[in-house]
Amino acid sequence: LFARSASSFPHHRATLRLSEKFILLLILSAFITLCFGAFFFLPDNSKHKRFDFGLEDVLIPHIDSEKEARHSSRQVIHEESLRDKIRADHERALQEAKEKLRKSKEELKAEIQTEKTKVVEDLKKKDGPKPLPPVPMPKLVGVKDGDPGDPDTKEKRDKIREMMKHAWDSYRQYGWGHNELKPIAKKGHSTNIFGNSQMGATIVDALDTLYIMGLHDEFKDGQEWIKQNLDFSVNAEVSVFEVNIRFIGGLLAAYYLSGQEVFKVKAVQLAEKLLPAFNTPTGIPWAMVNLKSGVGRNWGWASAGSSILAEFGTLHMEFVHLTYLTGNPAYYQKVMHIRKLLAKMDRPNGLYPNYLNPRTGRWGQHHTSVGGLGDSFYEYLLKAWLMSDKTDTEARKTYDDAIEAIERHLIRKSNGGLTFIGEWKNGHLERKMGHLTCFAGGMFALGADGSPDDKAGHYLQLGAEIAHTCHESYDRTG
Fold first, then answer.
1. For each successive 10 residues of the chain (478 residues), what is the average pLDDT?
2. Residue ranges in 327-452 assigned as alpha helix (H)
């Protein structure tokens, strides 16, 4: 049936195929339209994502390389500009620093000159220490002004002069030019306090005594040796304290007594050699100094590398005179600085310990003694006041305060009724008195002049009691 029907309608079969093709074509067209519509009408982010996927591997490296190149170029330019700026700032800062340094040096020089002028003016003021003019040939009692009326006094005086001449002649024969004489061995000797050098310490030390005693021939011999042989350029390490009191003191005394210029010249030369000893952080001088190199140090046995009170505190009489004689304020300033530094420091019980570290400015061992290690510090305070015609009130007050503390904490009586000056050590009083303390009897008596009226008699009596104790100590020990 089917076969017959199909063969019976050939025209209809052809029509059906055309319709099917047309339908398929429509479907295909619709599909193509749908695809193109989807392609063109998708949201922007999908479209952009589609392009990104296709171009990111090509565009991004290219873009980044351009950015990096531009950034690198800008960085190079920036670095070069920064270097130029730093260089310019550095040069400007350097120039400013040089200018400031130049101004600082000029200002410093001006300040130093102003300070020097001020010190010299202060020295000339009536209320300051007064200079002691040299006396060329003074008329000294006992030399040319007649003999004492009392025969016993004259006999004693002549005997003392005889002993002095005997000692001088023996030194002249066996130890000439050496610092000391060994009397038994009969040969010269030079001690370590003068650097084992032959500086004629005995000659310089004896000049004023020779002159006062009227031994002028001997005095002239000593003067000639000093003029020809005394040399301070030797490579010798000397005690600043000993050289000051024996050499500078001896030379200045000889100059004031005789007026001979050579003594003044030598004293100033030596003082210049001692000045490097003051080059410490505090201005407290070293105990020793090399006269040639200027290098200083302290005694190895001193507490914690300290300087000694009796040594650095026994300089200002001579150094003040050096300023008087030369007009150079350096000497005066060095020693007055020591006094002012001590005044600012705390003192245990008002006492001055014997040790002071020149680097740190701190006390060493708290050991106070009016004898060895401390003695002449107190003596020089009183004598500085007297030397200034009693105008150096600072020295007098320092002396009075020190003596008051000594009397309160150190002066005691023994079980036998003898007055003595003990030593304060490690927080307690040691009930002993060394023989070097015996000078204090005369010091208390000398200091009575200038004490308050109600104290003058007291200090005279105290001095007499200490002198009596010293007499007894020698008498009882044979």
1. 41 50 67 58 44 38 49 60 74 73 63 60 50 41 62 92 97 96 94 85 96 94 97 94 97 93 97 98 97 96 94 96 92 96 95 97 95 97 93 95 97 97 95 96 96 90 97 93
2. 329-344, 375-387, 393-409, 439-448
Residue 368's DSSP bridge partners are 424
Report which of 207, 315, 333, 224 is spatially closest to residue 270, judged by C-alpha positions: 315
First to last CA, the chain: 180
293 within 8 A of 236, measured Cβ to Cβ: no
Residues 6+ apart with CB under 8 A from 295: 276, 289
Structure tokens belonging to residue 213: 């005693």
Alpha helices in 247-297 (DSSP H): 249-258, 261-274
The separation between CA 110 and the C-alpha centre of its own chain, rounded to angstroms, equals: 22
* Tokens 């100033």 sit on residue: 268
Please give the structure tokens belonging to residue 396. Answer: 């007098």
Secondary element (H or E) of residue 239 = strand 237-239
CA distance linking residue 13 with residue 410, whole number of Å: 154
Percentages of the chain per state (helix, strand, coil), in multiples of 5: 65, 5, 25
The residues near 335 (Cβ < 8 Å, ≥ 6 apart) are 315, 316, 319, 320
Angle between helices 453-476 and 439-448 (to 10 degrees): 160
8 Å CB contact between 255 and 264 = yes
> Any idea which residue has 């120039």 for tokens?
95
Do the Cβ atoms of 179 and 202 come closer than 8 Å?
A: yes
Residue type for 342, please? L
CA distance 93 to 257: 61
**pLDDT of 93:** 73
Q: What is the CA radius of gyration of the chain?
A: 50
pLDDT of residue 110: 67
Residues near 393 by beta carbon (within 8 Å), at least 6 away in sequence: 385
Q: With beta carbons less than 8 A apart as the criterion, state whether 129 and 386 touch.
A: no
Grouping H, G, I as helix, E, B as strand and the rest as coil, residue 204 is: helix
Cβ neighbours around 80 below 10 Å, total: 10
Give the SS3 label for residue 326: helix
**For the whole model, what pTM was predicted?**
0.71
Integer Cα distance of 352 and 346 in angstroms: 9
* pLDDT score for 92: 79
